[in-house]
Design brief:
CATH architecture of the largest domain in chain A: Orthogonal Bundle
Order of helices and strands of chain A: HHHEEHHHHHHHHHHHH
Strand content of chain A: under 5%
Structural class of chain B: alpha+beta
CATH class of the largest domain in chain A: Mainly Alpha
Oligomer: heterodimer
Structural class of chain A: mainly alpha
Number of helices of chain A: 15
Number of domains of chain A: 2
Strand content of chain B: 25-35%
Radius of gyration of chain B: 24 Å
Radius of gyration of chain A: 27 Å
Largest sheet of chain A: 2 strands, antiparallel
CATH class of the largest domain in chain B: Alpha Beta
Amino acid sequence: MTAAVEGSPSLRMTRARRNALLQSEPVQGLALISPTFIYALILLVLPILVVIAHSFWTQHYLTIDRTFTLENYRVALTEPIYRDLLWRSLYISLTVSLLTVLLAYPIAYFISFHGGRHKSLWLFLITIPFWTSYLLRVMSWKVILGYNGVLNSGLMGLGVIDEPSTALLYNSSAVIITLTHAWAAFAILPIFVSLEKVDRTLVEAATDLGDGPLRSFLRVTLPLSAPGIISASLIVMIPTVGDYVTPKLVGGKDGVMIANAIQAQFGKASNWPLGAALSVTTMLVVTLMAGATVLIIRALQRLAR
Amino acid sequence: MPEQPQILRPQSDRSMIEIKNVTRSYGAFKALDDASLTIREGEFFSLLGPSGCGKTTLLRMIAGFDNPTSGSISVGGQPMEGIPANRRPTNMVFQSYAIFPHLNVEQNVAYGLKRLKLQGGEEKRRVEEALAQVSLTGLGKRLATELSGGQRQRVALARALVMRPKVLLLDEPLSALDKKLREQMQVELRRLQQAVGITFVLVTHDQYEALAMSDRIAVMFGGRIAQVASPKEIYQRPVTRQVADFLGGMNFVKAQIVEEDGASLVVDTLGFGRIKTDKPKAFVRNGGGATLGIRPERLRVLWDNATAKFEVAGKVVERHYFGEITHLIVEIPGLEKPLSVTETNDFGADDIPVGTSIRLAYDPEALVAMAD
């Protein structure tokens, strides 16, 4: 044995083993992702753990009582105000994701199937709204929907209404309209990608087997683009449940959402544990809703067969 | 296993597809240029040509995925103008097979039947029958992603056949399969066509595939149909050098026309001397010259003292071994290019040393005159 002749066999063995370990694929992979992984751990997982911990504690003015309690969850789940806010948030985010997907699908379809050589130009145009800040875009909806806003003056000019409608701004509809517009691009892109992946020969094959344009769309294109629809719905649904700025600016008192209540608990009301309990509850509910959405779309996809 | 008797269907003379003066242009480029063709009922017809010759364009126009710029196409006596692909009596087997990935084999095959709303288990029965026709019985529940290339091809075939079309269109259906499977599928496709009696139109760039399967072949170049004939005639009596070249090796010999009448030509050649040959229908005289062609396997090595009525003498300059055959390149005094000779190896052609003087026998019938 060469190792024995050259002495210190155990040292050589460990070094060889260490090198082999360092060169193994999983280890190299972990090494590669570790900087971002550690970053994510510190900035995502730790805060969530802190929030979860707080949700089981109690606030006494400036100090926090660290004895375990479920009181915060009792309040979060039974107080009518929080229940209503949570329901409203879910309703708004569901409606927004449904509307966004419905509006985004034709656009994505058009770009993918009829964009021709200009596909990237179309996608580029879709990103243009992102060149301005989100706040400005929400503000401009205020201008459009307001009492003396563009929509009201336009409708009055056309003689559709006699006096400005107050039903447009400061309610949940205003929040829904604004959010639907704001998240459109995030829905268009995943749907576009999944439509791009649909093999055009499959549509031809469906036509060849007797399907008209609508039938081949419903039986082939739509089911095959389901992954895009799922990700678009989730991308829109999950963040909009917790949206805070939009209801604050255009929601008025009827458009307040759960995030505004959570912000109030961490801010003015200075009740961190209750805010934390509300956050955790919201997170759990969103997870359930997202899971349910995936299951429903999958079931619909199977029905299309 | 006893050899199954091959049932040859009597060829019908009724036409199934009429293609009249069809042109398809993309701007200044003509993918198809004034093509006219009649495909008969129950025929296995192949469109053969190199890529870009317009064969797929023609097939797609029959299917309805593309429309002629001018000219007309009719299928089963019915003009196809203005009839969309989904209402044509044709079905297609796509080159990529286009199996629906979200459906299993049964659902794929039943795809076109769903719309017909068949009663009382008829749909299931027809699906079973189609799967049996392509030997896929029992695989109905498999997902498309769980199939091999050959199986996917069979699903595509079953899916089209189950519709009982007047015409089955096949767009390079065998090109994605490996050699062995391809040869097996050639036999199966031919057998299937004979069994169902549907008109098959096959697009291919593989001359052996076309020769092995077809009743008739149309050879196409640059958007034009060069020749339409039976495999044997296409191979043995090509009308142009291009057709001759595309269908395998051919020795070309320059000739001078001495005499010409309606049916025959008398030409003088260096090497082969004076030859009388059939004049091809499409022969257009272009000055006093012509080209004669002879296939390498129609030249035979004369051993020892054997003699033949017609022979040429030359010297072997190259030898290439291909297992069952040997290619000999033989220089003939007076010919500008040496002749290529294919000889089976059962008599020892693989042992003829380079440099040997040999004599080659030929049949003047095998020398075909061609337009340049």
